[in-house]
Specification:
This protein has 4 helices and no strands. The chain is mainly α.
Length: about 140
């Protein structure tokens, strides 16, 4: 029996509202990648830690987008890990950038808890984790958190 059948739950992370979630992740993957590429190409020597964090956030968003779009088997596990790293990243970088702004001379997607992006980076991992939980296999097939 396929996960979610008969339970009223979606069977895929990329179905129903998951499509919108994957789209938002895709937009952030593009935005974070473009930002990191520009920062690294033009001013890496000014704030290498910050621009490295920008590159990390881009990688995490790309990975989360692909994993959520694929949604099954090992991709579900990859999605859990990527979205978990995203949550830890946005909370850690957000807190550090607020508490000690001197260490963050420029912004990343996660600076100020995603303030420059309307706090979407703060909300997005919670939505991602909730969606992964909602679409988890009902009968124990496949990976779970």
């Amino acid at each position: 029996m396929s996960a979610g059948r008969g339970s009223g739950r979606p069977t895929s992370t990329a179905s129903g509202p998951g499509r919108a979630l994957v789209a938002v992740y895709g937009i952030f993957a593009l935005a974070a990648s473009a930002r990191a590429a520009y920062q690294i190409a033009t001013k890496l020597d000014e704030a290498p830690l910050v621009y490295g964090l920008s590159a990390l956030s881009a990688l995490v968003y790309v990975l989360a987008t692909v994993a959520l779009a694929r949604g099954g088997g090992r991709w579900r596990t990859v999605a859990w890990v990527a979205v978990g790293i995203e949550l830890v990243g946005v909370l850690t970088v957000g807190a550090l950038s607020v508490l000690d702004a001197g260490d963050f001379p420029d912004e990343t997607v996660w600076s100020g808890f995603g303030q420059g992006y309307g706090y979407v980076p703060l909300v997005l991992p919670f939505l991602g984790l909730a969606w992964l939980w909602r679409t988890r296999p009902a009968d124990g097939d496949g990976p779970t958190p």
